[in-house]
Amino acid sequence: MNASELQKIADWLIDGARSAASPSHMMAETCERLVQAGLPLWRVGVFVRTLHPDIYGRNFIWRPGAEVEVGTVDFNVLDRPEFQASPLAIVFTEGSEVRGRVGDPGSDRFPIVADMRAEGVTDYVALPLVFTDGSIHASSWTTKQPGGFSDVQLNALRSLVRPLARLVEIINLQRTSALLLDTYVGNRAGARILGGQIRRGHTDSMHAAIWLSDLRGFTALSDRLPAETMVDILNGYFDCQVSSIRNHGGEVLKFMGDGLLAVFPIDEYVGDIQQVCGSVLEAARESRASVEAMQYPVGEAVERFRFGVALHVGRILYGNIGGGNRLDFTCIGPAVNLAARLEKIAGKLGRTVVASAGFAGICAGGWADLGEFPIAGFSRAERVYGLVDEAPAA
């Protein structure tokens, strides 16, 4: 084991592993450097818990001559017998080192040791990665060297996990920041905020298709159903829309009670306005079908739901708006205001999907002229269009 090479690797990690372009590259280069320094590694894993509503953690697995495998696990992993019987469960709960060398007393209590013995692995060591906030993450190291890791090699790994933990923590914090921003403000807004657009007044103009929807009868539902039930209903209702919006290139900017505001950016240089509006309409049709199929049992009855969505296209102002040190990343402008007014008209007409003349003109075909309506706050009336295949609700 080359001590000077090991120190170079530690220094490289402390300096941010600058030659590695991504976490996967950092993992691969770290392991390859360790092998070159004399560590007989076979399989290495890094397991990091995350702050995410659906994902418990991420794992990175390295093997010689193969691409680093990157995966995620959900919160159900904590209840799975294979996890509860693994050395990693001990590392996460106790923060202690766990070793499973083939032939050592007690090593067979870990199923993973028996599995790896079949691959020719002779030693398995799980080491905690302790972050500065005290949270415990994990790494695992295996070898096929006869007799397992030597004491010198084990000590080298123990010394290396400290700088590795610092770098992994920084990478994890950066990713957590991006994930949380994506979760709460959307990926486009999150990228801008992380890029430094954080001062009030930092705004951009964007040409976009606008989606504004709400749940019909929300106030009456809220009056007769428990608040906890309404939260569950709203989550299911928003699920009916969000996946379709995102799959068709849109970004959800805001949930407002039962309302949802989304935008579909239009690249004017590419000239994809017809394609974008067609995708928006397809997302609206998918959402309509999903909401119509949605059922929620309440006692002996089953609640059914309807929603309305207004589609418009225009230029919006997109960026930081707020007061003092409390900002919101949102969009404003006459186009957004018109979409909001159209959504109210959709409710009065008993329609699910309505569009402005601008949107219907771009996404031509399949529209019925519903008439011209005065729009509060606007100097002239607006012609409103509904889908031909949709009969107005009573």
Q: How does this structure look, described?
A:
The protein is α+β, with helices and mostly antiparallel strands and 394 residues long. The protein has two domains: 3-185, Beta-Lactamase (2-Layer Sandwich); 197-387, Nucleotide cyclase, GGDEF domain (Alpha-Beta Plaits), CATH 3.30.70.1230. The protein is built from twelve helices and 16 strands. It has helices spanning 3-14, 23-36, 81-84, 87-94, 111-117, 151-185, 187-194, 218-224, 227-247, 273-293, 334-349, 357-362, and strands at residues 43-49, 55-62, 69-74, 98-99, 123-130, 136-143, 203-215, 251-256, 259-265, 295-298, 301-304, 307-323, 326-332, 353-356, 367-373, 382-387. The strands form three sheets. Strands 7, 8, 9, 12, 13, 14, 15 and 16 form an eight-stranded mixed beta sheet that branches. Helix 6 packs across helix 7 and helix 9 packs antiparallel against helix 10. The radius of gyration is 28 Å and the shape is elongated. The model has no long low-confidence stretch (mean pLDDT 88).
Proportion of strand residues: 25-35%
Order of helices and strands: HHEEEHHEHEEHHEHHEEHEEEEHEHEE
Q: What is the number of domains?
A: 2
* The CATH H-level homologous superfamily of the largest domain: Nucleotide cyclase, GGDEF domain
Provide the structure class.
Answer: alpha+beta
Provide mean pLDDT, rounded. 88
CATH architecture of the largest domain: 2-Layer Sandwich
- At the first level of CATH, the class of the largest domain is Alpha Beta
Q: In which range does the helix fraction lie? A: 40-55%
How far apart are the termini? 80 Å
GO molecular function: adenylate cyclase activity
Domain Guanylate cyclase: 209-343
InterPro entries: A/G_cyclase, Adenylyl/Guanylyl_Cyclase_3/4, Nucleotide_cyclase
Organism: Bradyrhizobium sediminis
